[in-house]
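ok here's the first one, seq then C-alpha cells
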Amino acid sequence: MLAAERRDHLLGLLAREGKVVAKDVAADLGISEDSVRRDLRDLAADGLCHRVYGGALPVSPAVADYAARTTVTPDGKQRVAAKAAALVRPGSTLILDGGTTALAVARLLPPDLACTVITHSPTIVVALLDHPQAEVFLLGGRIFKHSAVACGAAAVEAAQNVSADLCLLGVTGVHPEAGLTTGDAEEAAMKRALAARAAETYILASSEKIGTASRFRVLPWEGISGLITDADPRHAVVEQLTARGVEVLTAG
C-alpha cells in the first residue's frame, strides 16, 4: 500500500471509528507499527489528527483563532447557548468562560435578569454592558489573544477568590477516552480554576467538538455536572457518555 493510500485509510478510520490504534492498523495492513506512527506524525503535522499514546484521535476544528471560530457552526453554538442560558436563575452567580459559545450565552441572557456574572473574558464584559441588572466582575491577568481571555498566574489567583452557583465552560475537544480538552496549557489551568469555584459546572460543546481531542486535558468526566451539546443523542460518542453516567443536555 502506497503512503497516500495509507493516509486515506487512517483518515477513514478516524472518521468512522473516532480513533486509530497503531498496532491494530499495522496488523491489518501487514506493515510495521513504526510505519503507522510515521504516517500519524505526518497527519498530525498537517493538523489532521491528534496523536496520543498508541495511536491518534480526531483533531478538534475549534483550535482555530478566535475570529475563525466565529464562523464554525454558528447555528449549533446558538442552540447550545440558548440551552445554557436557560440554566441561569435570577439572583444567582454565574462564572462564564470565554469563547464564541460563551459569548452567545451572554448575549442571550435576558436584559432584565438580575444576576452576578464573573468572567475572565473582556468580550463577555462588553456583551453585558447593556444588562443593567447584571453585576459583572472581570478577572484580570495576561490576555491570551487566541481566545480573548485572561490567563496565567494572576488570573488563576483571582479565580480562587470567587464563588458561584454555576460555571459554564467551553472546551475544544470532547472525547470518551481523552476527556475534556483544549489547545493551551495555561488556558486549561484557568478553566480548572474556574470550575473549582462553582457548585455546578456544565460544558458547552457544539457538535463539531464531539469525538475530538486537543493537547491539554481540562477536566475528567467526574469533574463536571453535565454536557450541553447540539449533537444527535444517537451520536456514538454521546451514547457512550450517557452510558457512563454523564448528564447530556440536548440543545434542540
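and now the second one, same deal
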Amino acid sequence: MGRVSQAQAQENRRRVVDTASRLFREQGTHLSVADLMKAAGLTHGAFYKQFASKEALVDEATAHAIDEWVRSHAAHFEQNGGRRDAAQRDLIDAYLSSEHRDNAADGCPVAALAADVAREPEDREARRTYTQGVAELAAYLAPAEAVAGGEGGEEGLVRLCTLVGALLLSRATQGSPLSDEILAAARTALMETA
C-alpha cells in the first residue's frame, strides 16, 4: 500500500480530531486509541503517524470542541441581530433541553469534559484551553448591562455553573422524572434573570 498524499494525511488528522472531540464528550478521554481510530475509519497504526501521544490528541480535541462550541454561539448571537438577551435566552433554552442532555457527543464540552480535564495536570494544553473556554462562555452569559458597565463576570459565572450543574445532574438521573424536573427548574430560574 502506497503512502497517502499530504492532503489525505491532513484530512485523516482532521477526521481523527473531529471523531475524538465527539467521542471524548460522549464517553470520556479514557477511550482507547484503537477504539477511537476504528470509529474514525482508520487503522491503529495511522494514529502514531499523526500524533505524538494520546495526550497530544486530547489537547487538540479539547481545543477543537471548545472552539466549535464558542463559534456556534458567536454565530447564534449574530443570528439574533446582536441582541445579547435574546441569544442568551435561546442558549439557556437549548442547553437545558432533553435533546442536549441526550446528545453529549455534540453538546457542551464544558460539561462533558469537566471530570476528565480536572484530572489533567495544570500545565497541560487541554486544561489551559478548557479554562479559556469556561471564561469565554461565562462572559457570553453575563448580562448586557453589566458587560456595558465593565462588570458582569460574577453573574455570567453563576449562570454557567447553573447550566453545567443542571445538565450534569440531569444526565446522571436520566430515565427518571427527576431528570426533566432538574432541567425545567434550572431553565425557570435562569430565564427570570436573562
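notes on #2: The longest helix spans residues 54-79. The CA atoms of residues 58 and 126 lie 7 Å apart.
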